[in-house]
């Protein structure tokens, strides 16, 4: 009996250690130390960014997340109806994206640089690597739609921000698809109701014609009128059928109302895949052996399933124009992640750079990167 209790005690001790290590690792991943504006500024200047861009006028905007914490963003105005919502990477803030604001404003596009969870004035206790951040992007889309009627919006992000943008675009397209499906169903029901009314009218008119036929000479005028009404009913049926076909065709154009494009730069293909890679490189730990406990820990810290941050599944649902950017020599998110994303969406375009590290092409391949983005925007008439 003592032996059994001893084995059971050892098992519980090992299980406690197993989950303890898993929770420690996950907390370290979900709550990293954010870089300060000064740190980001010095890094950007060292890489050749013009310090003058940090003096560009901008407006701080604060709204509420659907998760009840504050969301913050900085709007760089181009005085147009075109907007791009730009999301930063891990441990950075909007401050690292000012270079993109300068670029887009010069193109006549307003840039809304958002602070993702735990960054600057944005709340949230832990990062979720896109799970909740993407819902926050939906809040920003709604904000722009409400405050700038008839505006056109695109999303862009780098690294974790790129993943967040993919998830947000996927959710927008899914929502549009649901709305259009509902609209198509309502149209079909209305069509069926109208067809029934036309059929009833046609039956009544036919009966009247038969009755009138017993006295053709006296009812000739009535017969002519009824025949015209029959033709009118038949025309209504044909017109309604045409309308139904048109609505069905329209329902396939998902995502065009709320979002015009997606640009994702150096995104990972799923949180689990990048977690395994970075665990091996940064923590020197084989993360896979802790998989069950890590999935549980992620849910405990974030309230979301780790599997919900699967960019391969998300990008497959994106139907708006999509541009993927990645460098063959990326030292943080391997290039294979871009290939996996492209495989899931045949309509997406992938442009590959060479010779620069993670999210460094705007500094070292600037002309190539800016040209690619300009051409992409021109192709979609944005």
> What is the alpha-carbon Rg in Å?
29 Å
- The H-and-E topology, N to C, reads as HHEEEHEHEHHEHHHEHEHH
Shape: globular
What's the main sheet like? Answer: 8 strands, mixed
Structural class from helices and strands? alpha/beta
Strand order of the largest sheet: 1-2-4-3-5-6-7-8
Strand content: 5-15%
Describe the structure concisely.
It is built from twelve helices and eight strands.
Task: Give a verbal description of the structure.
The structure is a single chain. The protein is an alpha/beta fold and 382 residues long. The protein is built from 12 helices and 8 strands. It has helices at 2-30, 37-46, 98-106, 133-147, 160-213, 220-250, 271-283, 291-302, 311-315, 336-344, 361-364, 366-379, and strands at 59-64, 70-76, 82-87, 110-115, 152-158, 261-265, 322-327, 349-353. It has an 8-stranded mixed sheet, sandwiched between helices. Helix 10 links the parallel strand 7 (322-327) and strand 8 (349-353). Helix 1 (2-30) crosses helix 8 (291-302) and helix 4 (133-147) packs across helix 5. It starts with a helix and ends with a helix. Mean pLDDT is 86; it is low at 239-256.
